[in-house]
Amino acid sequence: MREAEQLFKRHFGYTPAHDVRAPGRLELLGNHTDYNEGLVLSLAIDKYLGIASAPRTDGKIKIISSAFPGREIFWSSEFKKNPAAPWADHIKGALDQLRKRGVHFTGFNAAIHSTIPIGAGLGSSAALEVATALTVRALHPFSLGETGATPPPKRNARGELPPLTADEKIRFARLCHAAESQFVGVNCGLLDPISSLFGKAWHVMSIDCRFYSVETTPLLGEAIIVCESGVKRELVAGRYNELRRLCESAARALGAKSLRSVDAKFLAANRSRLNEREYQCAYHVVGEIQRVVAAERALREEDLRQLGQYLFQSHESSRDFLQNSCSELDLLVELARAHPGCHGARLTGGGFGGATINLVAYHQAGNFMEHMASQYEQRTGRKLAPVVCQIVDGAA
User: Fold this and answer.
1) What is the rounded CA–CA span in Å between residue 177 and residue 171?
2) CATH number corresponding to 2-215
3) CATH 3.30.70.100 fits domain 220-389
4) Domain boundaries defined on the chain
5) Nearest C-alpha neighbor of 129 from the set 240, 22, 19, 16
6) 192 is an active site residue
7) Alpha-carbon distance 296 to 187, whole Å?
């Protein structure tokens, strides 16, 4: 991203040695199924986080971000949270996990610029962690095996490193997940980093979060439109972690490794084992995994109207059972449903605010966005700027 490079030049006074970028993601279907070892349909989108960097010789790491004032400075051997710069926790968490895996690196300067809206549920945190890990790889080449760092890859004649293998992408995703859960404190799943790493232009990723497999299916001829509610999410506040706790306690009460192993009939027959909130969360997750299976079939058959119905059903389940929606997200889905060009809409990401994803007939995209903007402002007094998102390749 040229913006990150320009920011680096302005702040540090010279040209960076490397630049990487990682895309945000949209969860097409599969709300809160990833940490339940379930299935998810996901997209990498043309909203990016870029890091421009250059090595230092004194062991310090200096970071500047276009989104936040000031800069963060710390030693490459010590990673502590700074309450004045919580955005840097994602970077420090990724660096900490690299160090724990035996990856050698020293100090560096870095400039960050992102077009991924913060707090909208589009994977901005994971993109920052992925980009951090790739920055260190560019500065100090390494490979990741199952137990940690392995002999580094060789650069080609142009100084380029080979692309990550599929197995390495999974290991990078696990590293980023550990950074988010162990350092930042959000007990999330692997959906976001996997999506950022495995994205394929014009394709939907089908992610199996038990076996860590990724398959892709084309999605052509329709518009993916994001409507940001204006309600910022704060996952660290505990609501996301609480939903995960409820899902895991429900699985234990049912004698299952995870809710992936539970089907609808078994859940209904054993409802008495669960308290009401455990049952509601389990009911959503079990049904959501079934919807992903059905939606994959509709996608392969190019039945986008049917695919859209699964999106609407998903939102209703998130709203009524998982209870991670809010009035603004519900209104956005209601307004989308009223437009003839919309195949389907639902909240995307962790919920409790953020954005909706809308699958819209391409030739009606402009009219749909006008409809959403005018109606949302009329009903809430808030400005809405719907955005068309292209499906893109993963981090590079």
Assistant:
1) 10
2) 3.30.230.10
3) no
4) 2-215, 220-389
5) 22
6) yes
7) 27
